[in-house]
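Here is one chain, start to finish.
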Amino acid sequence: MTNPPTAPVDGTKPSKAGRNLPAAIAVGVFLGGLVIAVLLLASEWWYLVVGVAMLVASWEVVKRLREGGFDVPVIPILAGTAAIMVSSWHWNGDPGAVLVALVATVLVVMVWRLLSQGLSAAPVGYLKDLAASVLVLVWIPVLASFGAAMVLDDRGAQRVFTLMIVVVCSDIGGYAAGVLFGRHPMVPAISPKKSWEGMGGSLTFGIIGAVCCVVFLLDSHWWIGVILGAVLVVCATLGDLVESQVKRDLAIKDMGTLLPGHGGIMDRLDSLLPSAFIVWAVLSALL
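Its structure:
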């Protein structure tokens, strides 16, 4: 049984979707403006912006995992996050470089955790801690590297804008349809607020946004936008559900508290990270 939502300590009434809507909108507008400014005015700094965000997100998730009883090593995870992002940047977004950095980090984590109790004691919970560590590395910096690498491609800034715009369209469509018409929960055991009506809104807005981006930003065929929008919306929704289940297992509401109305950095990346890979893959294959 889940506890009923409580009102925020500042007296602000939460929205039907469970957010402090004014704070969420303000933070969302600020973050969107930052992304637009970097991509339009200084795209060469995009990797740095993404890298810093991934370090914060990795720290949030590692902290929550450690609070939940997982002995995930902090230093190797953060160093590996930085190494994965730097490798992607240095080798011009080459997935092979990302894979090498990932494997090297996993090897370090394996040895680090193996010897964390010293030479005279065997580690406790070694397998679950190692699995959680690999999850963090793949979930955050590896997926993020595809979103960062798009800026290096032809019309790179436009590709990143496409990712952001379609995810935002999906969120807005799902939020509006869910609040107004949501009656049938999709997976109430994982995320009680998600409804099939909201999914329909996400698909409608996401496909429209993707078609507009592909036609007007990428100067390509509208049907690519239909494919991209449909696949991205499904992937973004599943990404959101994955984080919801991780938080449910850890018995927490948010991964962090850095962003008012949103939680932590990772709480804003749950749908963006898998979507970054999808956009990179679809556009690389069809453009």
